[in-house]
Amino acid sequence: MSDTIQQSTSTVLTDDAAALRVAAEIADRLAGGAVARDRDRVIPRDELELIAHSGLLGISVPADLGGAQVSNATLAEVQRVLAQADPSISQTLLPHYVLIGAIAGLAEPAFKARVLGDVLAGARIGNGLSERGTKHAWDPQTRLSRGDDGQLVLNGSKYYTTGALTSDWIGFSAKDDDGRVVLVIVPRDVEGLELTDEWTSFGQRTTISGPAVLTNVGVEPEQVLPLYLAFEGPVLAGAFDQLLHAAIDTGVARAALEDAGRYVRERSRPWFESSAEKATDEPEVVYRFGELGVKVNVAEAALRDAARTLDEVGAGELTDENTARASIAVASAKAFAGAVGVEVASALFELAGTSATDAAWGLDRHWRNVRTHSLHDPVRWKYRHVGAYVLNGTLPPRHPLI
């Protein structure tokens, strides 16, 4: 491990190259324990502490607040590299980076400086957005209201809260007294907040995504961000969120392909009807690896292209047209990455053979992880928006998931 990672939580990475270098070093450390953490549902506290010490948590903080403000291309690659090592940890970091953007764009200056200053010192932000029993994902029933004493209070419950249990700050979506959707940023240890680790999904097992209950949680006005304003004009927020999701699926696809190759080289036998001496010499096996390799390469290229498009569009004045172009690029990468990840993670067993299903190898985690994560939002709607754009020039709607 390099000196970069050994430094204190106040370490601040200053440029894109440093972020990429440290991400690669961290990924090497994460990969070794990924199978055991997944199998035993171990909360990755030590690994998250390592990341906090590394400076990676602050790489997207704006430069005027002391951060590196790395490009979208760099941040997507950081997420992809970490996801290749352990996608549960990469997903735990995703809301952190998304909420940094929300705080940077919507918070009052003093509160922004406070929270993002904590981030530069190693603090992490978790999320509390998803609820059960609502009409759809963006219809929160959690309420921010003003009591008789004039104090703002937050009440409600969240179904899963990725990263919240071990975070320092948490962003909760809610509706205010006027029915507007707001984002409320509270400390994890605030009175009235109960968090648990009751996350029982078959994949992404260690994302620390248990439910939350908020009971009369006191809130100061500065902690309330007007999320309803974020999508009134042209915006890249939804595309940015989806880019990081695409990076996770792409990372899992690469990990599954590499593990498949390793297993076939080291353990698989040729089929008895084949004249090959080794499984790696079977023409059918070689062909299938080539087919899968091409798809993973294209998924990675699509991710890079989408990230560069976001950087290009974000460098100038935002319009409905150029933000739509960015959203379509990201939607394309996201839809393709999820499909490729699921295919490779399944084909792994087709190529490696029956013995690869032994739980000792933990190879099933790739399929479970990518199948779970790729359901984060429906791919069918990605194809719908891309199709409408390509065929009719219809711009996708402004939305957090587009």
- Estimate the helix proportion, in percent: 40-55%
Could you name the CATH topology of the largest domain?
Butyryl-CoA Dehydrogenase, subunit A, domain 3
What overall form do the CA principal axes indicate? globular
Topology pattern, helix = H, strand = E: HHHHHHHEEEEEEEEHHHHH
Q: What distance separates the N and C termini?
A: 38 Å
Record field, number of beta strands: 8
Key attributes of the depicted protein:
four-stranded antiparallel sheet, 402 residues, alpha+beta, Butyryl-Coa Dehydrogenase, subunit A, domain 1, four-stranded mixed sheet, disordered N terminus, 3 domains, Butyryl-CoA Dehydrogenase, subunit A, domain 2, Butyryl-CoA Dehydrogenase, subunit A, domain 3
Give a topology summary:
Blueprint lengths: L2 H4 L9 H16 L2 H7 L4 H10 L17 H14 L1 H20 L2 H12 L4 E4 L14 E4 L5 E7 L10 E7 L5 E7 L5 E3 L16 E8 L4 E2 L11 H30 L16 H32 L5 H33 L11 H10 L5 H14 L10
Helix pairs in contact: 2-4, 2-5, 5-6, 5-8, 5-9, 6-8, 8-9, 8-10, 8-11, 9-10, 10-11, 10-12
Explain how this protein is built.
The chain is an alpha+beta fold and about 400 residues long. The protein has three domains: about 5-125, Butyryl-Coa Dehydrogenase, subunit A, domain 1; about 130-225, Butyryl-CoA Dehydrogenase, subunit A, domain 2, CATH 2.40.110; about 235-390, Up-down Bundle (Butyryl-CoA Dehydrogenase, subunit A, domain 3), CATH 1.20.140.10. The chain is about 50% helix and about 10% strand. It is built from twelve helices and eight strands. The chain has helices at about 5, 15-30, 35-40, 45-55, 70-85, 85-105, 110-120, 235-265, 285-315, 320-350, 365-375, 380-390, and strands at about 125-130, 145, 150-160, 170-175, 180-185, 195, 210-220, 225. The strands form two sheets. It has a four-stranded mixed β-sheet with strand order 1-4-5-8, with helices on one face. It has a four-stranded antiparallel β-sheet with strand order 2-3-7-6, with no helix packed on it. Helix 5 (about 70-85) packs parallel to helix 8 (about 235-265), helix 8 (about 235-265) runs antiparallel to helix 9 and helix 8 runs antiparallel to helix 11. It is globular, with a radius of gyration of 22 Å. It starts with a helix and ends in a 10-residue tail after the last helix.
